[in-house]
């Protein structure tokens, strides 16, 4: 098989795998009643952010369809939200034609700001839900009181720890296909460059913002690498990936598709996303040690 044919075949396989992964992940998230991402999908909220109060500041802890810079811009004062939104109200909306829209420009990257037609908010005592409406097809049908109850439940729910037994079972299944290619995805530089336009007040603020961004990156990559492939968050802006392919591993092609997905989902500069190999392994214990290290 010629080089071009080989590349086209790998891209076809990648596209098919990605579609299957998206379907599987959607079903997985839909099964988790208190998962913010499944909840947004059910409500047809394609561009949403959940702010949570921490002392006298609010910042985004969960985001769907918003870029890294917008997440970084979310650090804001309690006084601002108390002065602009009413806790006892339902949906509160501001269109870009209104003068009040400018008050919220501080939270939006240039790209999101240019696309936004209307911002919709619900404010609770210690949290704010923000929706970004980009087109006229959006209908705000969700009942505000129901949304408030849902948000409270989502905030109360503790994230489930990674099911390592399920991961180990996936590895065993993957090894029936091929040895695992062990890959390290590094996004620290990409994230730093993406949020460079934002002046964060201190390192504590920065670390909280990075945690939200890294979670979004992990979620995006987990959608790309469906089981039996495994994706685990690592340290210092890295993700560990165990990839099983009977056709071998084209690292450059994988990096290209990962970088494109992250550029689309969270606006990370493609050139700053790096993928390197840590070898391969035919052994479950070795793969698990790599993923958890």
Q: What does this protein look like?
A:
- The protein is of the alpha+beta class.
- It is 45% helix and 20% strand.
- The chain is built from eleven helices and ten strands.
- The strands form two sheets. A six-stranded antiparallel beta sheet has the order 3-2-1-6-5-4.
- Strand 8 (230-233) and strand 9 (238-244) form a beta hairpin.
- Helix 9 crosses helix 10 (251-266).
- The protein is elongated, with a radius of gyration of 20 Å.
- Mean pLDDT is 88; it is low at 24-33.
Layout of strands and helices, then pairs:
Blueprint: H1 3-30, H2 36-43, E1 48-54, E2 57-64, H3 68-72, E3 76-77, H4 78-84, E4 92-95, H5 110-115, E5 118-123, E6 127-133, H6 144-156, H7 164-174, E7 180-186, H8 188-194, H9 203-224, E8 230-233, E9 238-244, H10 251-266, E10 274-281, H11 284-292
Antiparallel strand pairs: 1-2, 1-6, 2-3, 4-5, 5-6, 7-9, 7-10, 8-9
Strand order of the largest sheet: 3-2-1-6-5-4
**How many DSSP-defined strands?**
10
Distance between the termini: 38 Å
Shape: elongated
As a whole number of angstroms, the C-alpha radius of gyration is 20 Å
Total count of helical runs of at least 4 residues:
11
Short summary:
The protein has 293 residues and is of the alpha+beta class. It is built from eleven helices and ten strands. The longest helix has 28 residues.
């Amino acid at each position: 098989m010629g080089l071009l044919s080989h590349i086209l075949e790998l891209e076809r396989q990648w596209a098919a795998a990605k579609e299957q992964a998206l379907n599987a992940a959607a079903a997985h998230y839909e099964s988790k009643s208190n998962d913010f991402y499944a909840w947004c999908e059910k409500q047809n909220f394609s561009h949403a952010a959940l702010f949570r109060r921490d002392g006298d500041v609010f910042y985004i802890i969960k985001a769907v369809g918003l870029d890294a810079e917008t997440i970084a811009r979310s650090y804001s004062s309690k006084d601002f939200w108390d002065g602009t939104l009413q806790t006892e109200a339902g949906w509160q909306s501001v269109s870009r034609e209104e003068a009040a829209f400018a008050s919220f420009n501080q939270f939006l990257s240039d790209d999101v700001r240019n696309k936004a037609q209307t911002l919709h908010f619900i404010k609770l005592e210690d949290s704010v839900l923000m929706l970004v409406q980009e087109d006229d097809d959006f209908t705000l049908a969700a009942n505000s009181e129901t949304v408030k109850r849902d948000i409270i439940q989502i905030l109360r729910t503790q994230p489930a720890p990674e099911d390592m037994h399920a991961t180990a079972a996936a590895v065993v299944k993957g090894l029936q296909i091929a040895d695992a290619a062990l890959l390290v995805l590094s996004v620290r530089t990409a994230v730093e460059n993406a949020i460079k336009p934002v002046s964060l007040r201190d390192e504590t603020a920065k670390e909280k913002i990075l945690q939200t961004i890294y979670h979004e990156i992990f979620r995006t990559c987990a959608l790309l690498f469906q089981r039996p492939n495994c994706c685990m968050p690592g340290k210092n802006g890295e993700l560990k990936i165990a990839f099983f392919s009977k056709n071998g591993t084209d690292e450059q092609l994988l990096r290209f598709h990962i970088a494109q997905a992250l550029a689309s989902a969270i606006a990370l500069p493609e050139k700053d996303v790096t993928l390197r190999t840590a070898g391969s392994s035919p052994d479950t214990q070795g793969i698990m040690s790599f993923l958890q290290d």
